[in-house]
Write a structure and sequence with these properties.
By secondary structure, the chain is α/β, with parallel strands linked by helices. The chain has 2 domains: about 190 residues, Glycogen Phosphorylase B (Rossmann fold), CATH 3.40.50.2000; about 170 residues, Glycogen Phosphorylase B (Rossmann fold), CATH 3.40.50. Helices cover about 40% and strands about 15% of the residues. The protein contains 13 helices and 13 strands. The protein has a 7-stranded parallel sheet, with helices on one face. A 6-stranded parallel sheet has the order 10-9-8-11-12-13, sandwiched between helices. The protein is globular and about 65 Å long.
Length: about 375
């Protein structure tokens, strides 16, 4: 470790601890935990460097770290906290931002941009959100050191913001947060579903998730006794009306604990990931961790993440997806048929690997090139 490249003080933007847990928040939470474990066990990373996670008032108090000090600063929330309170409190520090946004006037920051969906699929976002996040992205890309979560997103960011790909570091997601996690099988009884008698989707039902194709394929498959469980927040644009309107074969299951989700993965016939656009896509890997077969949309980033460990279909083709649903339904229970392929994916995408990559960037000064 070159003493010239050791930062005296590193602050992590902890705004994610005030937000509902989705993909970006999961990434931030797990990556910081992995960082904390390494820093705690390897004193070289903290002997000459102060580590702080700065959070707004009202942040999740159940989130615990050992080596990184959690510090509540300011009295605002949301973007105002980030642009004013965090900016002031972290002045002079190397500021690590893991969730797409950052204090725009901070002079020494590293920002993870997960995707450029607001540029690629602007029709999927409201005018205010789209306008604000486009402006944020352009400014951050111009005055920050950048990272992202996949080779696909690296190419996308390079194209949209006209930056050389090599100037955009890759710090991938992990999936081992569900390894050895206790499962809560009571959720099966609560949702009135049986083991190996349902297909599973996990994620917020935003337009890019392509749920309409999944719903169409499921109904075309006409599999007796099969059910489709949808885990995630309910979007009225995707699910208008009452739950009863979708019939008994569609099970809506919002707001589930990690233990319940682990159980749903472990007991599903297969997990379906029909997305049209992603920056990475953690759920297929989470399913693999629990031994659940994966059926996924054939888009570049999912190929990058899942490799040969998933069955693929064209994302706009419900008939091919219906055939895959029938094929998986008729297969005998076998959770290890693609064991070696799955193990390779799980071993590749570990939070500790991602934390090591980030530490390497910070302590070799590569985030400041």
């Amino acid at each position: 470790m070159d003493p010239k490249t050791i930062p005296k003080s590193i602050t992590i933007n902890g705004r994610f601890l005030t937000q509902k847990i989705s993909g970006v928040q999961r990434y931030s939470r797990e990556l910081v935990k992995a960082l904390d474990r390494i820093i705690e066990n390897e004193p070289n990373y903290r002997m000459k460097t102060r580590w702080r996670l700065m959070v707004p008032p009202g942040a999740d108090t159940s989130y615990r770290l050992n080596a990184i000090h959690i510090e509540t600063v300011g009295n605002r929330g949301g973007h105002l906290w980030e642009q004013y309170d965090l900016l002031r409190a972290s002045r002079g520090d190397r500021l690590i931002n893991l969730g797409n946004s950052a204090p725009l006037l901070h002079r020494n920051k590293f920002v993870i941009i997960h995707d450029v969906a607001v540029f690629r699929t602007p029709e999927n976002f409201g005018w205010r959100y789209r306008t604000g996040h486009k402006a944020m992205g352009r400014i951050v890309a111009r005055n920050s050191d950048l990272g992202t979560v996949s080779q696909f997103s690296q190419a996308e960011i390079s194209n949209v913001f006209c930056r050389p790909p090599k100037s955009i570091s890759i710090i991938t997601n992990g999936c081992d947060h569900l390894l050895n996690r206790a499962t809560d099988d009571a959720v099966l009884h609560e949702l009135d579903i049986e083991r190996e008698k349902y297909f599973l989707f996990v994620g917020n039902p935003t337009p890019n998730k392509n749920l309409s194709v999944l719903l169409e394929a499921f109904h075309r498959a006409q599999i007796p006794r099969a059910r489709l469980v949808l885990v995630g927040s309910l979007d009225s644009k995707v699910f208008p009306g009452s739950r009863a309107a979708y019939g008994p074969d569609i099970v809506l299951a919002p707001h589930r604990t990690d233990e319940e989700v682990a159980s749903l993965y472990a007991n599903a016939k297969a997990f379906v990931f029909p997305s049209l656009y992603e920056g990475f896509g953690i759920p297929p890997l989470e399913a693999m961790v629990q031994g659940c077969p994966v059926i996924a949309a054939d888009i570049p980033v999912v190929r990058e993440v899942c490799g040969e460990a998933a069955a693929y279909f064209p994302p706009t083709d419900p008939d091919t997806l219906a055939e895959l649903l029938c094929h998986h339904w008729n297969m005998p229970p076998d959770r290890v048929s693609q064991g070696e392929l799955v193990i390779k994916r799980i071993e590749k995408f570990q939070w500790s690997n991602s934390a090591r990559s980030l530490l390497d960037l910070i302590f070799t000064d590569r985030t400041q090139q």
